Amino acid sequence: MAVGRRYSSHMRLRSDIFVSALVRRLFARGDFAAVERKGEEHAGAIFIRQRFRDGLETLYGPAPQSLFDEEESGMRLFEIRIERKDAQDIRATLDRELKFDPDLWIVELETDDIGDIVPLAGLRGNPLD
User: Fold this and answer.
1) Which of 1, 21, 111, 114 would give a disulfide with 118, using CB separation of 3.0 to 4.6 Å?
2) Pairing assessment for the beta strands 46-51 and 57-62 based on DSSP bridges
3) Residue 112: helix, strand or coil by DSSP?
4) What is the SS3 assignment for 56?
5) How do residues 62-118 score in pLDDT, each as one tens digit?
């Protein structure tokens, strides 16, 4: 008998389905989104480049598992990795990430606000409050 091992009944949405839904939601509200790089369909990590009108970008990456509650183990949660920097800085970071994980996804968004589209760690309210 395995002691201390827990299994979650929550399944994480496949990466390809999450990315497809993300792109559709942005287009539906009149913004632009594109898949810059396709990763592993089932469980590839997803990085999001948010481009602003002034040419700067913010990079979002997967939040560490330690930020997930047990009940949320099936959802994707993101954190800001780099905020409002030049595209070269974002590209250099993504190139480093690709060396460690060649199966990752890169999604590019041109929108001013992603708060209602991308679940961010630390910025969510407690649903019980």
Assistant:
1) 114
2) antiparallel
3) coil
4) coil
5) 998 665 554 455 678 999 999 999 999 999 999 999 999 999 999 999 998 888 889
Residue 38 has pLDDT above 50, yes or no: yes
**Phi, psi of 25, rounded to the nearest 5 degrees:** -65, -40
Predicted TM-score (pTM) of the model is 0.83
d(CA 39, CA 46): 8
Residues 6+ apart with CB under 8 A from 112: 52, 53
Rounded to whole angstroms, the Cα distance separating 30 from 90 reads 24
List phi, psi (to 5°) of 41. Answer: -65, -40
State the pLDDT confidence band at 7, using cuts at 50, 70 and 90. very low
Q: Do 12 and 90 contact (CB within 8 A), yes or no?
A: no
87: domain range?
A: 32-129
Q: Is residue 26 part of a domain?
A: no
| Long-range contacts of residues 113-118, Cβ cutoff 8 Å, at least 24 apart | 114/48, 114/50, 114/60, 117/22, 117/25, 117/26, 118/22, 118/48, 118/60, 118/78
Please give the Cα distance from 46 to 43 (Å, whole number). 9
